[in-house]
Design brief:
By secondary structure, the chain is an alpha/beta fold. It contains twelve helices and five strands. It has a five-stranded parallel beta sheet with strand order 2-1-3-4-5, with helices on both faces.
Length: 262
């Protein structure tokens, strides 16, 4: 029996506080898989100890074993995520690719290309450009930094919060900061506020439509979040960011070519 099924089965036998934690896990399994015990406890409004006790009550040695089992279950169920309008298949390659294609098509339909062009122009015209991403989105920030460097656009990469704090102090009018953050939570609030106060332009690439930062930034692009859909299983959001980066790079290259011809 997988962890989610076990939680549902044992739900009537749990205390009220354990039921509250269980509801959170059932509603946010991907968050539980991706984040630390402390972060989960904070979001679920409980304690680390209470979560560990629940895991042990279910028969696990602790939270780590529960999380590992949940991750393995989610990954094995990925190809069964969405069977509407297609025949059931055991081909995980076809199933996973089709799921990403759906989300990439959604990105193509919903993303404002005029805004991407404006961001591309900002990138090319800025005297200094910083690209920020923390934890997993650091990979996306690194990819954009690498791709821009390949076409001759100098930039500064910051995947460490200490380095980010340095840039928020030295960036000023005309400088541009690009931020990758899936949740776009409070982690970047002080950085964005200070950059704006200094006159820098801030661009946010996120997957959170309700981000508290979107009204603080000069440009805000929200991409579809494949990991949020529980029916999709354990799929990663970075692939969506990586394809978006290629679209942005294409617009940057067009702007550079047009500028060189004038």
């Amino acid at each position: 029996m997988n962890p989610l099924e076990l939680l549902e089965k044992e739900f009537p036998n749990l205390t009220k506080s354990e039921q509250m934690i269980t509801r959170y896990i059932l509603d946010h399994p991907m968050f539980v898989i991706r984040f630390s015990l402390t972060q989960i406890a904070k979001e679920a409004k409980t304690s680390n100890t209470a979560i560990i006790r629940l895991c042990q009550k279910l028969g696990y040695q602790g939270f780590s074993e529960f999380k590992f089992s949940l991750s393995r279950t989610a990954l094995s169920d990925t190809h069964e995520g969405d069977k509407e309008g297609s025949r059931e298949s055991d081909d995980s390659m076809t199933a996973i690719v089709s799921q990403y294609v759906k989300y990439l098509n959604q990105m193509a339909a919903e993303t404002d290309m005029d805004q991407i062009r404006r961001i591309g122009a900002l990138i090319c015209q800025s005297p200094r450009l910083a690209i920020m991403g923390y934890n997993r989105t650091g990979f996306s920030a690194s990819q954009l930094s690498y791709r821009l460097s390949r076409i001759g656009v100098a930039n500064h990469l910051a995947t460490d919060q200490v380095v980010m704090a340095d840039y928020m102090e030295i960036f000023g009018p005309g400088d541009v900061c690009l931020i990758f953050s899936i949740s776009a939570a409070k982690t970047y609030k002080e950085i964005v506020q200070r950059l704006k106060k200094n006159g820098a332009t801030v661009v946010l690439f996120t997957m959170n439509t309700a981000s508290p930062l979107k009204n603080l930034c000069d440009h805000y692009i929200c991409l579809p979040q494949i990991s949020y859909n529980k029916r999709m299983g354990f799929l990663d959001d970075q692939a969506i960011f990586f394809v978006f980066i290629e679209v942005l790079i294409s617009e940057v290259a067009k702007f550079l070519n047009q500028s060189s011809q004038t």
